[in-house]
Amino acid sequence: SYLQRAGYVAAFVVLVLGVLLGKVLSRGTDAMAESDRAFSRGDLSAALEQATVASEAYVPWAPHLVAAEARLRALALGAESTGQRYLAQRAWSALRSSRIQVAHPWTSLTEPFDQGLRDANSALPDLLQPAVPVRAGDSIEDRETALLSVRQAYQRDVLPRIPLLVGHTLGMLLLLLAGTAACFSARFPTLWVWSTGGMGVAFWILAALGA
Fold it and tell me: How many whole angstroms separate alpha carbon 148 and alpha carbon 121?
């Protein structure tokens, strides 16, 4: 029956999602445990690398995400206090990148600039100041202008914007509609199913281009 077929599809989707989430959760937990071991033996570079891996293994409400962000923040602040600019830059950059990578279009409405991202954006321009290129003959004002543009670039909202939000949502709904219709293919023409799915993919692509 149609309901039985839909049930099989739903069960398959839940199973696949469960396996994928389990693998991501395991990777994040293992990486955080390795970061703890590296931190305990004083290998700050390895601790940072593994905390970065853990911070990018996104599973909603997973404990390793909180621990990874705390570790990256501690490494960044500790490196700043001891004058290790390069390590601080790596730690803040890792925190910033991980927050951007796990950002979802809908979360940008409720958390447009979370604390981790805001702190990283505030710290990085000063750490990158020696790397700002200066051309021969540039005045102090030119250098200050270059530094200001770097600071403004980091303070700019980098989370998903409205085109991405709308395109992502429409694309997801159309793909869901196409998948549901495929379960009842006897009632819905194949061309209609493929057209709806194609429009869903098109909205995703347009969202990415407009982001």
Answer: 13
Angstrom distance (rounded) from CA 192 to CA 181: 9
Kindly tell me the sign of the dihedral angle through the C-alpha atoms of 18, 19, 24, 28.
positive
Q: Residue 34 in contact with residue 71, Cβ under 8 Å?
A: no
Burial status of residue 57 (CB atoms within 10 A of its CB: 0-12, 13-18, 19 or more): buried
Q: pLDDT tens digits for 52-70? A: 999 988 887 889 988 999 9
Residue 150 tokens read as 């770097």
Residue 133 contacts residue 184 (beta carbons within 8 Å): no
Structural tokens at position 138: 């540039």
Question: How far is the CA of 68 from the CAs of 33, 142, 150, 211, in angstroms?
Answer: 10, 39, 27, 28
Q: Report the 10 Å Cβ neighbour count for 203.
A: 20
pTM equals 0.67
